[in-house]
Amino acid sequence: MSRKFFVGGNWKLNGDKKSLGELIDTMNAAKVDPNVEVVCGAPSIYLDFVRSKLDAKFGVAAQNCYKVAKGAFTGEISPVMIKDCGVNWVILGHSERRHVFGESDELIGQKTAHALESGLSVIACIGEKLDEREGGITEKVVFAQTKVIADNVKDWSKVVLAYEPVWAIGTGKTASPQQAQEVHDKLRGWLKANVSEAVASSVRIIYGGSVTGATCKELASQKDVDGFLVGGASLKPEIIEIINAKL
C-alpha cells in the first residue's frame, strides 16, 4: 500500500506576523510536489492568522492541546477551539512537552483520545533520549510510548507517528538514514504485532531531528520513512526543498 509522503513543519515558539507572513508568501508561491501532504504547526496565538493566509493545499496544526473541551484550565486550548479556527491537526507528545513541561505518557494518551474524538488528526511524537539510546533501550522506550498512543486510537487514518530521537532535535546531530529506517521498521513490526497488519502497512511514520535540505533526500529514500517533522528548517525557504525531497 502506498503511503502519502507527509511533511510537518513545527514552528515551535518562533515567528511574528511579519516573519510568518513572509514564510507563508514563500510557501504559497512555491512549486511543491502535489503528492506530499504538508502541515504547518503554528503557535496557538497565530493559528487563525496562519490558516487565513496559507494556501488551502497546506494544512495547519496546533502544537499542543488539552484533554477536555472547556473548563477552568488557565492557559490551555482545546480541540474544539482549534477546529473553530479552521485548523484540523494537532501535534501531541513532542519531546519538549514531555521533557521541558513534564507531560506524562498517560496525559499524552488522554490528549490523543480527546483530540481524535473531537475530529482532529494527530501527529503523535515518540523518541528516546541520548542516555536511553546509549543504554540500548531505544526499542523499549519507543514501544512503551507507542503503546500508550495506540491504546487511545480507534481510527489510525487520522494519526501520523513521528519518531524523533531526542538527542537529534536541534542539536545538528541527525540519526543516520540507516538508524532512522531501523527504528521505523521496528515500529511497523510492533504495530503489526500489537494493532494489525493493515495499520502497520498504512500508517505513516515520519522522522524528526535536525532534518535539513542537505539530509532530507537520503532519509526520504528509506522504505519506512514516510516523511518528516521539521523544526528549525521549517521557518526558512529551505522547507520547500524538504517538501520536494522525493522529486
UniProtKB/TrEMBL annotation:
Superkingdom classification of source: Eukaryota
EC number annotated for this UniProt entry: 5.3.1.1
PROSITE patterns given in the database record: TIM_1, TIM_2
Pathway(s) this gene product operates in, as recorded in its UniProt entry: Carbohydrate biosynthesis; gluconeogenesis; Carbohydrate degradation; glycolysis; D-glyceraldehyde 3-phosphate from glycerone phosphate: step 1/1
Function: Triosephosphate isomerase is an extremely efficient metabolic enzyme that catalyzes the interconversion between dihydroxyacetone phosphate (DHAP) and D-glyceraldehyde-3-phosphate (G3P) in glycolysis and gluconeogenesis. It is also responsible for the non-negligible production of methylglyoxal a reactive cytotoxic side-product that modifies and can alter proteins, DNA and lipids.
Subunit structure: Homodimer.
Protein name: Triosephosphate isomerase
Species the sequence originates in: Pagothenia borchgrevinki (Bald rockcod)
